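Pyridine nucleotide-disulfide family oxidoreductase, Liquorilactobacillus vini DSM 20605. C-alpha coordinates?
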Amino acid sequence: DKLKEVVILGAGYAGLRALHRLQAQSNSSFHITLVDRNDYHYEATDLHEVAAGTQTREKITYAIKDVINPSVTTFIQATVEKINRDRQEIDLKNGQKLHYDYLIVSLGFRSESFGIPGVEEHALEMVDVETAEKVYQHLVSQMKDYTHTHNPASLRVVVCGAGFTGIELLGALCDARRHLASIAGVEPQELEFYCVEAVTRLLPMFDEELADYGISHLKNWGVKFLTGKPIKAIKPDTVVYQEDKETGTTKNLTAKTIIWTTGVSGSRVMEVSGFKQRRGRVMVADDLTDPEYSNVYIIGDVSAVMNAQNNRPYPTTAQIALKMGDQAAKNLLAQLKGEKGDKFTFESAGSVASIGNTHAFGLVGKTAIKGYPASFVKKAIMDKSLLATGGLKEMFAKGRFDLYH
Ligand code: NAD
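C-alpha coordinates:
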Protein backbone atom coordinates (compact mmCIF):
# COMPACT_ATOMS: atom_id res chain seq x y z
CA ASP A 1 0.00 0.00 0.00
CA LYS A 2 1.00 3.59 -0.57
CA LEU A 3 2.17 5.41 2.54
CA LYS A 4 -0.57 7.67 3.91
CA GLU A 5 0.46 11.29 4.38
CA VAL A 6 -0.42 12.92 7.71
CA VAL A 7 0.15 16.68 7.90
CA ILE A 8 0.24 18.52 11.24
CA LEU A 9 -0.09 22.31 11.08
CA GLY A 10 1.41 24.07 14.10
CA ALA A 11 3.95 22.94 16.71
CA GLY A 12 2.23 24.30 19.79
CA TYR A 13 0.98 22.23 22.71
CA ALA A 14 -1.72 20.43 20.73
CA GLY A 15 0.29 19.74 17.56
CA LEU A 16 3.39 18.49 19.35
CA ARG A 17 1.42 16.25 21.67
CA ALA A 18 -0.30 14.68 18.65
CA LEU A 19 3.08 14.30 16.92
CA HIS A 20 4.56 12.67 20.00
CA ARG A 21 1.87 10.01 20.15
CA LEU A 22 1.83 9.35 16.40
CA GLN A 23 5.61 8.94 16.35
CA ALA A 24 5.51 6.65 19.38
CA GLN A 25 3.04 4.35 17.62
CA SER A 26 4.32 4.72 14.12
CA ASN A 27 4.17 1.74 11.84
CA SER A 28 5.10 1.73 8.21
CA SER A 29 1.64 2.84 7.10
CA PHE A 30 2.10 6.61 7.35
CA HIS A 31 4.54 9.47 7.03
CA ILE A 32 4.14 12.76 8.94
CA THR A 33 4.89 16.29 7.79
CA LEU A 34 4.94 18.92 10.53
CA VAL A 35 4.72 22.58 9.52
CA ASP A 36 5.44 25.59 11.73
CA ARG A 37 6.55 29.13 10.94
CA ASN A 38 9.25 28.87 13.61
CA ASP A 39 11.94 26.23 14.01
CA TYR A 40 11.19 26.15 17.73
CA HIS A 41 8.28 25.39 20.06
CA TYR A 42 7.49 27.93 22.75
CA GLU A 43 5.69 27.64 26.06
CA ALA A 44 2.82 30.04 25.44
CA THR A 45 1.99 29.88 29.16
CA ASP A 46 5.28 31.67 29.96
CA LEU A 47 5.15 34.55 27.46
CA HIS A 48 4.30 37.10 30.14
CA GLU A 49 7.64 36.42 31.81
CA VAL A 50 9.55 37.15 28.61
CA ALA A 51 7.47 40.32 28.18
CA ALA A 52 8.43 41.48 31.69
CA GLY A 53 12.04 40.40 31.21
CA THR A 54 12.01 37.96 34.13
CA GLN A 55 12.64 35.03 31.80
CA THR A 56 14.76 34.70 28.66
CA ARG A 57 13.63 33.43 25.30
CA GLU A 58 15.89 30.39 25.66
CA LYS A 59 14.13 29.30 28.85
CA ILE A 60 10.72 29.04 27.21
CA THR A 61 11.64 27.56 23.82
CA TYR A 62 13.11 24.37 22.43
CA ALA A 63 14.13 23.34 18.94
CA ILE A 64 11.48 21.41 17.01
CA LYS A 65 14.18 19.17 15.55
CA ASP A 66 14.77 17.83 19.07
CA VAL A 67 11.34 16.18 19.08
CA ILE A 68 11.32 14.96 15.47
CA ASN A 69 11.93 11.34 14.59
CA PRO A 70 13.39 11.80 11.10
CA SER A 71 12.55 8.27 10.02
CA VAL A 72 8.84 9.06 10.35
CA THR A 73 8.53 12.85 10.25
CA THR A 74 9.65 15.67 7.98
CA PHE A 75 9.66 19.18 9.42
CA ILE A 76 9.00 22.16 7.16
CA GLN A 77 9.55 25.67 8.49
CA ALA A 78 6.96 27.75 6.66
CA THR A 79 3.88 29.87 7.20
CA VAL A 80 0.52 28.29 6.42
CA GLU A 81 -1.60 30.52 4.24
CA LYS A 82 -4.66 28.45 3.41
CA ILE A 83 -6.14 24.99 3.78
CA ASN A 84 -8.04 23.61 0.80
CA ARG A 85 -10.09 20.74 2.18
CA ASP A 86 -11.65 19.76 -1.15
CA ARG A 87 -8.29 19.29 -2.79
CA GLN A 88 -6.67 18.00 0.45
CA GLU A 89 -3.97 20.57 -0.01
CA ILE A 90 -2.15 23.22 2.03
CA ASP A 91 -0.90 26.48 0.53
CA LEU A 92 2.29 27.71 2.17
CA LYS A 93 3.41 31.30 1.98
CA ASN A 94 6.61 30.27 0.21
CA GLY A 95 4.49 29.07 -2.74
CA GLN A 96 4.86 25.40 -1.86
CA LYS A 97 1.76 23.15 -1.80
CA LEU A 98 1.43 20.11 0.46
CA HIS A 99 -0.91 17.21 -0.15
CA TYR A 100 -2.44 15.30 2.76
CA ASP A 101 -4.56 12.23 3.32
CA TYR A 102 -5.13 13.19 6.96
CA LEU A 103 -4.74 16.61 8.50
CA ILE A 104 -4.33 17.84 12.06
CA VAL A 105 -4.96 21.58 12.37
CA SER A 106 -3.39 23.06 15.51
CA LEU A 107 -2.57 26.60 14.43
CA GLY A 108 -3.13 28.27 17.78
CA PHE A 109 -4.35 31.70 18.82
CA ARG A 110 -3.99 35.34 17.95
CA SER A 111 -4.83 38.49 19.85
CA GLU A 112 -8.45 39.65 19.57
CA SER A 113 -9.01 43.39 19.22
CA PHE A 114 -12.84 43.14 18.96
CA GLY A 115 -12.55 45.82 16.28
CA ILE A 116 -11.67 48.47 18.85
CA PRO A 117 -10.00 51.33 16.97
CA GLY A 118 -6.30 51.88 17.38
CA VAL A 119 -5.47 48.58 19.06
CA GLU A 120 -3.33 47.21 16.24
CA GLU A 121 -1.54 50.52 15.71
CA HIS A 122 -1.01 51.78 19.24
CA ALA A 123 -0.99 48.82 21.65
CA LEU A 124 1.58 46.07 22.09
CA GLU A 125 0.42 42.47 21.82
CA MET A 126 1.89 39.44 23.52
CA VAL A 127 1.08 36.40 21.42
CA ASP A 128 4.41 34.78 20.62
CA VAL A 129 8.09 35.01 21.49
CA GLU A 130 8.76 37.91 19.10
CA THR A 131 5.95 40.08 20.41
CA ALA A 132 6.76 39.22 24.04
CA GLU A 133 10.39 40.22 23.50
CA LYS A 134 9.20 43.42 21.85
CA VAL A 135 7.23 44.32 24.98
CA TYR A 136 10.36 43.96 27.09
CA GLN A 137 12.53 45.93 24.67
CA HIS A 138 9.88 48.63 24.61
CA LEU A 139 9.81 48.79 28.42
CA VAL A 140 13.59 49.10 28.59
CA SER A 141 13.65 51.88 26.00
CA GLN A 142 10.95 53.78 27.91
CA MET A 143 13.01 53.50 31.10
CA LYS A 144 16.06 54.84 29.24
CA ASP A 145 14.02 57.65 27.70
CA TYR A 146 12.90 58.69 31.15
CA THR A 147 16.49 59.42 32.19
CA HIS A 148 16.54 62.43 29.83
CA THR A 149 12.85 63.33 29.27
CA HIS A 150 11.58 62.85 32.84
CA ASN A 151 8.17 62.26 31.30
CA PRO A 152 6.12 60.35 33.90
CA ALA A 153 4.17 58.60 31.10
CA SER A 154 7.37 56.66 30.37
CA LEU A 155 7.11 55.10 33.83
CA ARG A 156 3.45 54.19 33.33
CA VAL A 157 2.34 50.79 32.01
CA VAL A 158 -1.27 49.92 31.20
CA VAL A 159 -2.37 46.30 30.87
CA CYS A 160 -5.69 46.14 29.00
CA GLY A 161 -7.93 43.36 30.33
CA ALA A 162 -7.75 41.45 33.61
CA GLY A 163 -8.13 37.89 32.34
CA PHE A 164 -5.54 35.27 33.26
CA THR A 165 -3.09 36.70 30.76
CA GLY A 166 -3.37 40.26 32.12
CA ILE A 167 -3.16 39.10 35.74
CA GLU A 168 -0.09 36.94 35.15
CA LEU A 169 1.58 39.74 33.19
CA LEU A 170 0.93 42.22 36.02
CA GLY A 171 2.47 39.77 38.50
CA ALA A 172 5.59 39.44 36.36
CA LEU A 173 5.79 43.23 35.94
CA CYS A 174 5.75 43.59 39.73
CA ASP A 175 8.65 41.13 39.88
CA ALA A 176 10.49 43.26 37.30
CA ARG A 177 9.72 46.56 39.02
CA ARG A 178 13.05 46.96 40.80
CA HIS A 179 15.10 46.11 37.72
CA LEU A 180 13.14 48.44 35.44
CA ALA A 181 13.30 51.27 37.98
CA SER A 182 17.07 50.93 38.16
CA ILE A 183 17.31 51.45 34.38
CA ALA A 184 15.22 54.62 34.70
CA GLY A 185 17.19 55.70 37.75
CA VAL A 186 14.06 56.05 39.91
CA GLU A 187 12.66 54.47 43.05
CA PRO A 188 10.66 51.26 42.31
CA GLN A 189 7.41 52.80 43.58
CA GLU A 190 7.66 55.54 40.95
CA LEU A 191 6.72 53.01 38.26
CA GLU A 192 2.95 52.93 37.79
CA PHE A 193 1.16 49.75 36.72
CA TYR A 194 -2.49 50.07 35.69
CA CYS A 195 -5.04 47.49 34.63
CA VAL A 196 -8.17 48.63 32.80
CA GLU A 197 -10.94 46.03 32.72
CA ALA A 198 -14.49 46.08 31.31
CA VAL A 199 -16.27 44.03 33.96
CA THR A 200 -16.44 44.61 37.71
CA ARG A 201 -16.46 40.99 38.87
CA LEU A 202 -12.95 39.78 37.98
CA LEU A 203 -11.93 36.21 37.21
CA PRO A 204 -15.49 34.81 37.12
CA MET A 205 -14.22 31.19 36.95
CA PHE A 206 -13.19 31.51 40.61
CA ASP A 207 -15.41 32.28 43.58
CA GLU A 208 -15.19 35.82 44.85
CA GLU A 209 -12.90 35.05 47.77
CA LEU A 210 -10.32 33.34 45.60
CA ALA A 211 -10.50 36.02 42.89
CA ASP A 212 -10.11 38.73 45.54
CA TYR A 213 -7.09 36.96 46.95
CA GLY A 214 -5.21 37.26 43.67
CA ILE A 215 -6.35 40.78 42.89
CA SER A 216 -5.63 42.13 46.38
CA HIS A 217 -2.11 40.74 46.15
CA LEU A 218 -1.49 42.74 43.02
CA LYS A 219 -3.09 45.80 44.62
CA ASN A 220 -0.76 45.44 47.59
CA TRP A 221 2.13 45.40 45.17
CA GLY A 222 0.90 48.73 43.83
CA VAL A 223 -1.17 47.77 40.79
CA LYS A 224 -4.08 50.16 40.20
CA PHE A 225 -7.21 48.47 38.87
CA LEU A 226 -9.83 50.42 36.93
CA THR A 227 -12.73 47.96 36.72
CA GLY A 228 -16.09 48.33 35.01
CA LYS A 229 -14.30 50.52 32.46
CA PRO A 230 -14.56 49.09 28.94
CA ILE A 231 -11.83 50.34 26.63
CA LYS A 232 -13.30 52.16 23.64
CA ALA A 233 -10.19 53.12 21.70
CA ILE A 234 -6.43 53.21 21.85
CA LYS A 235 -4.78 56.41 20.67
CA PRO A 236 -1.05 57.15 20.60
CA ASP A 237 0.16 56.73 24.21
CA THR A 238 -3.47 56.84 25.37
CA VAL A 239 -6.10 54.37 26.57
CA VAL A 240 -9.63 55.72 26.10
CA TYR A 241 -12.10 54.02 28.43
CA GLN A 242 -15.75 54.48 29.26
CA GLU A 243 -16.05 56.18 32.61
CA ASP A 244 -19.83 56.17 32.91
CA LYS A 245 -22.18 53.68 31.29
CA GLU A 246 -25.26 55.91 31.58
CA THR A 247 -23.80 59.02 29.99
CA GLY A 248 -21.17 57.23 27.89
CA THR A 249 -18.50 59.70 28.96
CA THR A 250 -14.96 58.57 28.36
CA LYS A 251 -11.65 59.27 30.05
CA ASN A 252 -8.07 59.12 28.85
CA LEU A 253 -5.20 57.39 30.59
CA THR A 254 -1.84 58.29 29.11
CA ALA A 255 1.05 55.85 29.18
CA LYS A 256 4.02 55.12 26.96
CA THR A 257 3.48 51.36 27.35
CA ILE A 258 0.05 49.88 26.56
CA ILE A 259 -0.26 46.09 26.42
CA TRP A 260 -3.35 44.45 24.91
CA THR A 261 -4.53 41.27 26.69
CA THR A 262 -8.32 41.32 26.35
CA GLY A 263 -8.70 37.86 24.90
CA VAL A 264 -7.80 35.63 22.00
CA SER A 265 -9.27 34.03 18.92
CA GLY A 266 -8.10 31.16 16.74
CA SER A 267 -5.76 31.51 13.77
CA ARG A 268 -6.97 33.61 10.86
CA VAL A 269 -6.28 30.64 8.55
CA MET A 270 -9.56 29.08 9.76
CA GLU A 271 -11.58 32.02 8.46
CA VAL A 272 -9.59 32.39 5.24
CA SER A 273 -10.00 28.68 4.49
CA GLY A 274 -13.78 28.67 4.83
CA PHE A 275 -14.13 26.60 7.99
CA LYS A 276 -17.42 26.95 9.88
CA GLN A 277 -15.86 29.04 12.63
CA ARG A 278 -16.53 31.74 15.16
CA ARG A 279 -13.59 33.91 16.17
CA GLY A 280 -11.31 31.36 14.53
CA ARG A 281 -12.67 28.38 16.46
CA VAL A 282 -14.50 25.43 14.90
CA MET A 283 -17.10 23.49 16.91
CA VAL A 284 -15.69 20.02 16.26
CA ALA A 285 -17.44 16.65 16.12
CA ASP A 286 -17.26 14.31 19.15
CA ASP A 287 -14.07 12.69 17.89
CA LEU A 288 -12.36 16.09 17.28
CA THR A 289 -12.80 15.96 13.52
CA ASP A 290 -14.12 18.76 11.36
CA PRO A 291 -17.91 18.20 11.07
CA GLU A 292 -17.53 18.75 7.32
CA TYR A 293 -14.45 16.55 6.64
CA SER A 294 -13.77 13.38 8.62
CA ASN A 295 -10.07 13.29 7.60
CA VAL A 296 -9.41 16.66 9.26
CA TYR A 297 -8.80 16.95 13.01
CA ILE A 298 -9.03 20.38 14.64
CA ILE A 299 -7.39 20.78 18.05
CA GLY A 300 -6.08 23.38 20.49
CA ASP A 301 -7.08 27.02 20.29
CA VAL A 302 -8.68 26.69 16.83
CA SER A 303 -11.06 24.06 18.20
CA ALA A 304 -14.15 24.38 20.38
CA VAL A 305 -15.77 21.63 22.47
CA MET A 306 -18.94 22.25 24.42
CA ASN A 307 -18.91 21.91 28.20
CA ALA A 308 -22.28 20.28 28.88
CA GLN A 309 -22.26 21.62 32.44
CA ASN A 310 -22.62 25.27 31.45
CA ASN A 311 -23.43 24.95 27.76
CA ARG A 312 -20.41 27.02 26.79
CA PRO A 313 -17.27 25.97 24.97
CA TYR A 314 -14.36 25.08 27.25
CA PRO A 315 -11.89 27.98 27.50
CA THR A 316 -8.74 27.65 25.41
CA THR A 317 -5.93 26.46 27.67
CA ALA A 318 -2.68 24.51 27.37
CA GLN A 319 -4.30 21.76 29.42
CA ILE A 320 -7.15 21.08 27.01
CA ALA A 321 -4.83 21.48 24.00
CA LEU A 322 -2.58 18.70 25.31
CA LYS A 323 -5.56 16.40 25.90
CA MET A 324 -6.91 17.11 22.45
CA GLY A 325 -3.52 16.38 20.88
CA ASP A 326 -3.46 13.00 22.55
CA GLN A 327 -7.00 12.08 21.59
CA ALA A 328 -6.69 13.28 17.98
CA ALA A 329 -3.59 11.11 17.50
CA LYS A 330 -5.36 8.09 19.02
CA ASN A 331 -8.39 8.61 16.82
CA LEU A 332 -6.28 9.10 13.71
CA LEU A 333 -4.41 5.86 14.41
CA ALA A 334 -7.79 4.09 14.71
CA GLN A 335 -9.00 5.72 11.50
CA LEU A 336 -5.90 4.53 9.64
CA LYS A 337 -6.88 0.98 10.62
CA GLY A 338 -10.43 1.55 9.43
CA GLU A 339 -11.76 1.77 12.98
CA LYS A 340 -13.86 4.44 14.65
CA GLY A 341 -12.28 6.96 17.01
CA ASP A 342 -13.45 7.69 20.55
CA LYS A 343 -15.43 10.60 21.83
CA PHE A 344 -13.28 13.35 23.36
CA THR A 345 -14.11 14.01 27.00
CA PHE A 346 -12.55 16.64 29.20
CA GLU A 347 -12.50 17.17 32.92
CA SER A 348 -10.47 20.22 33.90
CA ALA A 349 -7.75 19.42 36.41
CA GLY A 350 -8.15 23.01 37.58
CA SER A 351 -6.49 26.27 36.71
CA VAL A 352 -3.80 28.17 38.52
CA ALA A 353 -2.65 31.72 37.76
CA SER A 354 0.79 32.87 38.82
CA ILE A 355 1.27 36.30 40.36
CA GLY A 356 4.95 36.78 39.99
CA ASN A 357 7.49 34.06 40.58
CA THR A 358 6.62 33.27 44.19
CA HIS A 359 2.83 33.50 44.40
CA ALA A 360 -0.10 31.91 42.63
CA PHE A 361 -3.74 31.13 43.19
CA GLY A 362 -6.36 28.91 41.66
CA LEU A 363 -8.16 25.61 41.75
CA VAL A 364 -6.73 22.12 41.70
CA GLY A 365 -9.77 20.01 41.04
CA LYS A 366 -12.27 21.76 43.24
CA THR A 367 -9.77 22.74 45.92
CA ALA A 368 -8.64 26.35 46.19
CA ILE A 369 -4.91 26.85 46.57
CA LYS A 370 -3.15 30.14 47.22
CA GLY A 371 0.09 31.83 48.05
CA TYR A 372 3.62 30.50 48.10
CA PRO A 373 2.73 26.77 47.96
CA ALA A 374 0.45 27.45 45.00
CA SER A 375 3.38 28.88 43.09
CA PHE A 376 5.11 25.49 43.37
CA VAL A 377 2.05 23.82 41.93
CA LYS A 378 2.01 26.36 39.13
CA LYS A 379 5.66 25.78 38.31
CA ALA A 380 5.12 22.06 38.23
CA ILE A 381 2.21 22.49 35.82
CA MET A 382 4.29 24.66 33.55
CA ASP A 383 7.28 22.35 33.67
CA LYS A 384 5.78 19.03 32.96
CA SER A 385 2.05 19.46 32.48
CA LEU A 386 2.02 16.94 35.29
CA LEU A 387 -1.24 18.15 36.67
CA ALA A 388 -2.93 17.48 33.35
CA THR A 389 -1.55 13.99 33.02
CA GLY A 390 -1.04 12.77 36.55
CA GLY A 391 -2.32 14.93 39.35
CA LEU A 392 -1.10 16.25 42.64
CA LYS A 393 -0.12 12.84 44.01
CA GLU A 394 2.33 12.10 41.23
CA MET A 395 3.72 15.55 41.49
CA PHE A 396 4.55 15.16 45.17
CA ALA A 397 5.83 11.62 44.61
CA LYS A 398 8.28 12.83 41.98
CA GLY A 399 9.74 15.31 44.42
CA ARG A 400 9.73 18.16 41.97
CA PHE A 401 9.72 20.76 44.72
CA ASP A 402 13.42 20.31 45.35
CA LEU A 403 14.09 21.85 41.99
CA TYR A 404 12.76 25.16 43.16
CA HIS A 405 14.48 25.65 46.49
P1 NAD B 1 -9.79 36.28 28.62
O1 NAD B 1 -10.81 36.36 27.55
O2 NAD B 1 -9.84 35.17 29.56
O3 NAD B 1 -9.81 37.64 29.47
C1 NAD B 1 -9.87 38.91 28.84
C2 NAD B 1 -10.30 39.99 29.83
O4 NAD B 1 -10.33 41.22 29.13
C3 NAD B 1 -11.69 39.77 30.40
O5 NAD B 1 -11.65 40.00 31.79
C4 NAD B 1 -12.54 40.81 29.68
O6 NAD B 1 -13.62 41.29 30.47
C5 NAD B 1 -11.53 41.92 29.43
N1 NAD B 1 -11.90 42.77 28.27
C6 NAD B 1 -12.36 42.38 27.07
N2 NAD B 1 -12.62 43.45 26.28
C7 NAD B 1 -12.29 44.55 27.00
C8 NAD B 1 -12.30 45.95 26.74
N3 NAD B 1 -12.71 46.47 25.57
N4 NAD B 1 -11.90 46.78 27.73
C9 NAD B 1 -11.47 46.32 28.91
N5 NAD B 1 -11.43 45.01 29.20
C10 NAD B 1 -11.83 44.13 28.27
O7 NAD B 1 -8.38 36.32 27.83
P2 NAD B 1 -6.93 35.92 28.32
O8 NAD B 1 -6.67 36.36 29.70
O9 NAD B 1 -6.01 36.36 27.24
O10 NAD B 1 -6.95 34.33 28.30
C11 NAD B 1 -7.14 33.61 27.09
C12 NAD B 1 -7.32 32.14 27.40
O11 NAD B 1 -6.11 31.58 27.89
C13 NAD B 1 -8.37 31.91 28.47
O12 NAD B 1 -9.08 30.75 28.14
C14 NAD B 1 -7.56 31.70 29.70
O13 NAD B 1 -8.21 30.89 30.65
C15 NAD B 1 -6.30 31.03 29.17
N6 NAD B 1 -5.16 31.33 30.03
C16 NAD B 1 -4.93 30.50 31.10
C17 NAD B 1 -3.88 30.76 31.96
C18 NAD B 1 -3.63 29.83 33.14
O14 NAD B 1 -4.27 28.78 33.23
N7 NAD B 1 -2.76 30.17 34.04
C19 NAD B 1 -3.05 31.87 31.73
C20 NAD B 1 -3.32 32.70 30.65
C21 NAD B 1 -4.37 32.43 29.81
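Residues 386-405 have pLDDT under 50 and may be disordered.
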